[in-house]
Amino acid sequence: MKEKIIIAENLSKQFGHFKAVDNISFDVSKGEIFGFLGANGAGKTTAMRILCGLSYPSSGKARVAGFDVYHQQEQIKKNIGYMSQKFSLYEDLTVLENIRFFGGIYGLGKKELKNKSDELLQTLHLSGETSKLVRSLPLGWKQKLAFSVAIIHKPVIVFLDEPTGGVDPITRRQFWDMIYQASENGITVFVTTHYMDEASYCSRLSIMVDGQIRAIGSPAELMEQHHAENMDQVFFDLARTATRSAD
Amino acid sequence: MISLVNISKTFNRGALKALSGISLEAKSGELFGLIGPDGAGKTTLFRILTTLMLPDSGDALINGLDIKKDVTTIRSKLGYMPGRFSLYQDLTVDENLKFFATLFGTTVRENYAQIRDIYIQLEPFKNRRAGKLSGGMKQKLALCCALIHRPDILLLDEPTTGVDAISRKEFWEMLARLKADGITIMVSTPYMDEANLCDTIALIDQGRILSIDTPGNIVRNYPRPLYAFKAKNLYRLQQDLRLHENIHSCFAFGEYLHVSFRDESAVSLPVMAKWLEENGHQEIILKNQTPVIEDCFIDLLKH
C-alpha cells in the first residue's frame, strides 16, 4: 500500500450556523495528482486552508505529510508548497530575488540555493532574465516560475489553487507537463481548477457540493458512474444539485 | 456598431506594446467575443472603447461616434462591466442600482423591464450590502447596473473569469437573452469553450489579432486533418508521440490527445496504432477529430 500524504476523516468547519466543510473524508497517496473540484462556494478554499495549516477544523481529523492539523501546523507549513493564481510571487522583486527569498524562507542553505536557482533558471529558459522584475514577465512565465519556486524545497506535497487561470492554451499544457514531472519526482500534487479538461489529467479527484464530497475516484471511474463522456458532464451532473449559493 | 481601425497603444514610454494595429468590426445586435489569455490586450481595448483612455494611434467609432471627440455621448450609450468588481461595496443592492440609474438621468422603475429577468434573482438580497454578496450575485448586480440606462452597447470584460462551469453557463444564457433584445454585446474571455456562444470572435494574443471570423469558419479553416489519440497511460503516450518524426502537433485535450501529422501521405491510423502497440501502449483508441476553437488558437499561436 502506498504511503498516504493526506488523510482526512469526518473533517468539518463551521462558521456560525454555516457548515462550510461538512464531514469530508478522503485520502491522497504519495505521488498522486489529486484534483479538488467544486463550484464556487462549495467549500474548497476552506478545506484547503485547513490542510495547509492556516485554519483549524471545527471537528474531525486530518493529517498532512504525517502531521496533525490541530497540533502541528508549523511542521505542515514546512513540508508543503503552495501556489495560487492570485498570489505567488513578489511583483516588485526580480526573478532571482524571488527565488532567493522563497528559498531562504524554506531554509535552503546558500550553496543549495545557488545550485537550485541555476537549475531552475535553466529549465525555465529564464537565465537571461534573472534581473527582470517579475511584474514585467508574461503571465505564463510567471506561473511556471511560481510553481518552480513553490517546490524549490522539495516539499512532500504542493497545493495549487487555480494555477492556470487566464493562461494561454499552450502554456497551460506546459504547466501540466511540469505538474506531471513533479509527480514523477515523488511530489504529491493537490490542485483546483475550473478547466474541466484539466480534471481529466488528475490521477484521482473529488467533487465537492455544498461542503460535502459527493464523488471521488479516477476520471475514468467517475465518468463510468455518471454515464458521462467527459468530466464536464460529470461536474454538471453533480454541481447542479447544489442548494446553497456561491462563495 | 463598433468599428476599430488600426488601434495601437503602448505603455511605459513605448516599452510595453499593449495593442498593435487592432482592426475589427462588431455589427449592431451582434454578440462579439474577444478570446485570448491574460496579457492579450483585452482590458486595454475596453478602456479605449469606453473613452477612459486614448489610443496612441488609430480610430474607433461607436455607433458612428468618435471615441476621441464624442466622449459624453458615447458614455451615455455604453454599458460597461469591468473585470474587477467596481460597485460600491458599502451600498446595498438597491442603493447601487438607484445610484447608477440616477447618474444616467433615469430611474430604476423606468427601465425595470430591461433588468427584470436578472433582478428577480437578486431581489431576495436587495437590502444586502454589495460587498456581502456571493460572487455570482455580485456579477448579476454589476450586469444590472451596466444595463439600467438601456445602453445600445454592452461591454463586458471577462465576466466569467474565476467563475465555475455552472455559473458560467447561466451567465451566457443571460447574454443570449440580452442579445435577443437587440443589444450589441462585446465580451472578452480567456475560456476558449465560450467562443462558440458568440456570433463573431477575434482570437487575440499579445496585442495582436490572430484571426477574426465566425467560430464555425475559424474551425473550418483549421489547416490540416486532426486526430484524437488515447491510451491507458496518456502522459507516456504524449511523450512517445512527441519523439515521432511525423508528428506536427500533439496537445492534451481532456481524455484525449489532439494530434496532427507533418505529412499525411506518409502515415495512417492503423500504422500509428501498430507503432504505439510496439512501444508498449495499451487500450489504444485513434480516431478523426473535428477541431475546436482551442485547437485553432494553439495552431495560430505556433506561427
UniProtKB/TrEMBL annotation, chain B:
SUPFAM superfamilies on file: P-loop containing nucleoside triphosphate hydrolases (SSF52540)
PROSITE patterns: ABC_TRANSPORTER_1, ABC_TRANSPORTER_2
UniProt keyword annotation of Nucleotide-binding present: yes
Record Pfam families: ABC_tran
Keyword ATP-binding: yes
Coiled-coil segments: none
Annotated ABC transporter domain residues: 2-231
Keywords on record: ATP-binding, Nucleotide-binding
InterPro entries assigned: AAA+_ATPase (IPR003593), ABC_transporter-like_ATP-bd (IPR003439), ABC_transporter-like_CS (IPR017871), P-loop_NTPase (IPR027417)
Domain of life of the organism encoding this protein: Bacteria
Name of the protein in question: ATPase
Organism: Flavihumibacter stibioxidans
